[in-house]
Amino acid sequence: MNVMITGASGGLGRALANECGRRGYNLFLTDIDARGLKSIQRGVERQFNVTVTTAACDLTSDESVDELVRSIDSLGIRFDMLLNVAGVDYEGGFLERSGRDIVRIISLNNEATLRITHALLNRRREGLPFYLLFTSSLASMYPMPLKATYAASKRFLLDLAVALREELRDKRVNVLALCPGGLATTREAMRGIAAQGFWGSATTNPLEVVSRKTIDRLEARGGIYIPGALNRVLTFFGKLLPRRWVAAAIYRRWQKAQEHWKPAELSAEKL
């Protein structure tokens, strides 16, 4: 099986690469971080004896994506699975971030995902099932003050996944929306989880477990996967309450958390 992973240098991308390698799948990894890609390539090839190809790419750039696609075509690769992992978030309120930051969330989380998904669906292996993952978020389930643009971008991915699952069913395309809570993918993410106290820890799930179950669900039936029993309970009850009440409760929680923690880059911008 040939698998492409975007955002492969990040924590979730790396964990999914290892999980696919463990299953014997060949990998095509892309990320803007060329050095990180080479590090993952060496580790996965050494540990699992699979073929790993890497290509650094800025998915927010039409020119960079066009170059990536030409590279794929020149190699004659056809794919069986696409794991859309690449994404970005910036902590802080809507007016605390620059306009460039706000727009980049949409550019990477949504535009880039659409661009690469359309390209790979037209380069899938003929006559075989194709497996398509969109990495959404638990944040997609609610309106989220202080993370408004990020949550909205993830809601877009969730709705896109549900719609494409029906639209492409007859073409043997399995689609899964992954909606995790906290994931300890970076040092900054871990600081954010810690700042939320009990709820941050309680809604966080191990990367290795999420990766394994994500591939299992994707290959079995697709749909929506929310890791963690508590996260599924919160999602259920969140749907029963008026969205304005949910937004108000989330705002109080995030406002309190961010009083104890502000990313260094956000603080620097305000100096």
Describe the structure.
The protein is an alpha/beta fold. It has a single domain (2-269), classed as 3-Layer(aba) Sandwich (Rossmann fold), CATH 3.40.50. 55% of the residues lie in helices and 13% in strands. The protein has 11 helices and 7 strands. It has helices at residues 11-22, 34-48, 62-75, 99-121, 148-167, 187-195, 198-202, 207-220, 229-240, 243-260, 264-269; strands at 2-6, 26-31, 52-56, 81-84, 130-135, 173-178, 223-225. The protein has a 7-stranded parallel β-sheet with strand order 3-2-1-4-5-6-7, with helices on both faces. Helix 4 links the parallel strand 4 and strand 5 (130-135). The longest helix has 23 residues, at 99-121. Residues 264-271 have low confidence and may be disordered.
**The named CATH superfamily:** NAD(P)-binding Rossmann-like Domain
* Secondary-structure class: alpha/beta
Query: What is the CATH third-level topology name?
Result: Rossmann fold
Helix content: 40-55%
Order of helices and strands: EHEHEHEHEHEHHHEHHH
CATH architecture identity: 3-Layer(aba) Sandwich
State mean pLDDT (0 to 100 scale): 88
Shape, principal axes of CA atoms? globular
| Highest-level CATH class | Alpha Beta
> Nearest-angstrom radius of gyration?
18 Å
Strand order of the largest sheet: 3-2-1-4-5-6-7
Major sheet, described briefly? 7 strands, parallel
